[in-house]
Amino acid sequence: AQSVTQLDSQVPVFEEAPVELRCNYSSSVSVYLFWYVQYPNQGLQLLLKYLSGSTLVKGINGFEAEFNKSQTSFHLRKPSVHISDTAEYFCAVSGTGRRALTFGSGTRLQVQP
Amino acid sequence: KAGVTQTPRYLIKTRGQQVTLSCSPISGHRSVSWYQQTPGQGLQFLFEYFSETQRNKGNFPGRFSGRQFSNSRSEMNVSTLELGDSALYLCASSEGRDQPQHFGDGTRLSIL
Question: Are A89 and A19 in contact (CB under 8 A)?
């Protein structure tokens, strides 16, 4: 079984500032890791994924994340945020070879002008 | 390619009724998974279908069921609706076991 902890429920940040959204996971098996974004009244959009290989993963909209196996973390970062990045962000994990995703509770990113 | 399509977008039902939600996956995707999203419990996995067979099931009562057709389209059914079933139901499809899931915009179910 897996679990995901997103340490911050809300992160306020000013436009053009950098941001980091934290995600820690727990699993007894090897995992795949994902970040999804959800805008109001929409489904989830895949930002980036870690399946294997390089631990630094680049995604869409300028986001990146780093897989740290020893710290069981997969933090999401963006060097300069825009108003349009305001949304809820979900970290998710699945066991390798399985499709069922376990999600964190989400982090609401609020970008202020 | 068209994305994952869920119908209807909104549904209002009363307690005790049953409901069927539909999901059309991305063309070529054979795996379909369903999730429930509520403010209290967050996003929870319901079940996954691949090649018309249920491959995995989450921790939900038997009132929640699903099926997948030969064209990979999927339906989920909830019987004897309860107030707590009010939620956004999300469908996701993927190409294969090691590929990410792509989500539809969901069906928002409200129980009165």
Answer: no
